[in-house]
Amino acid sequence: EAADPSGTAVADINLKDVEDCLIYDRRGVSFLFKSLYQDSKSVIIFVRNFLCYSCKEYVDDLSKVPRGALEEAGIRLVVIGQSSHQHIEPFCLLTGYSHEIYVDPKRSIYLKLGMKREETFTDSALPSPHVKSGLFMGQIKSIWRAMTSPAFDFQGDLHQQGGAIIAGPGSQVYFCHFDMNRLDHMPISWLLQLAGVQQSLDFSPKPKIMHV
């Protein structure tokens, strides 16, 4: 079992419980969840909601992951949100994210896997290296984006927490982490290396590829 760099427990899950849940792409076309990992190893990131400032900044950095590095390792990188599919396109335009993204609008996968629905903050938790905004300014940004979006809503359950899974091919789970709070994201470089990506990324404002 992989060690979790945040020091929190690695969740034990069974993908058979959620393999037939439906996810939707930006056009509203449905797919079975298992289609994401049946034929290849996938890094699947569940975000809180598309308006959450910490999720937006985390996906900002996911957008910097070179497609070539994923293809070389045979890895799929997938983001799953819990809004309606209409919010996918604006979120991708905002973050520059061009890898795979789907939504689970009923939160079926979140709920069946047991992802947390309230935030827990502990002294030992390490802050996400990908979140740049402080709590107050981050909340202001989230509210402003909700107010100025075409459909005024918060694009998902505000209390729902996210997580990360590395799975496939088949139903084998290599790693699973459920976020304790909005800052409890797994470091992207660590996740990708655990999945088998050979290149290490530096997520400073100008990303650089470091060959290791």
Automatic annotation (TrEMBL):
CDD domains per the record?
PRX_like2 (cd02970)
Q: Which InterPro entries match?
A: PXL2A/B/C, Thioredoxin-like_sf
Q: Which Pfam families match?
A: AhpC-TSA_2
Source superkingdom: Eukaryota
Protein name, as recorded: Peroxiredoxin like 2C
